[in-house]
Amino acid sequence: MLGRVAERLDDGESLPEALSPEGRSISPFDLALLRTGDHTGRLDICMKDLAGHCRLRARWLTQTFHACTYPMLLLVFGLLIFPIDLVVTLFTEGDWMSYLLHKARIAGGLVAGGLVLVTVLQMRAVRSGLESISWHIPVLGSALKERALARLILALDSLLNSGIGVVDAWP
Fold first, then answer.
1. N or C: fewer beta carbons within 10 Å in the chain?
2. What is d(CA 165, CA 171) in angstroms, rounded to the nearest whole number?
């Protein structure tokens, strides 16, 4: 990706123009912020805001990963232990093959289900439907609303800091 972007920059394209064809490699917000900086001549300020956004996203991803680690370890441990009679058979009769086949079927089903879930969640209509439903869940809904508001405020702050007026910055 970096090689293609560098080639486009060498050909005289602006940074946002060079990044646009990369699709999902760069978020629409990041690209819009870079376009704003390029348009207003304040690319340095926009890059600083974008760096702050990237640090914030990285912190959120790290916190999410850390929050998911323990439950995942419990899930793996549970998959290895249960059903107990299979583990007992494994140690009393040494029937490794049926134990491994059973665990492979479960793991395969979980992986296939996870891949289907990830694929379905990539669809914009599904994501927006799930989001509208989740906004009505008591604790989760208020947290999601606060997160959405925080994202809007950060986006507007970045645009306003880069020299775009309030009317132009409002989505």
1. C
2. 12
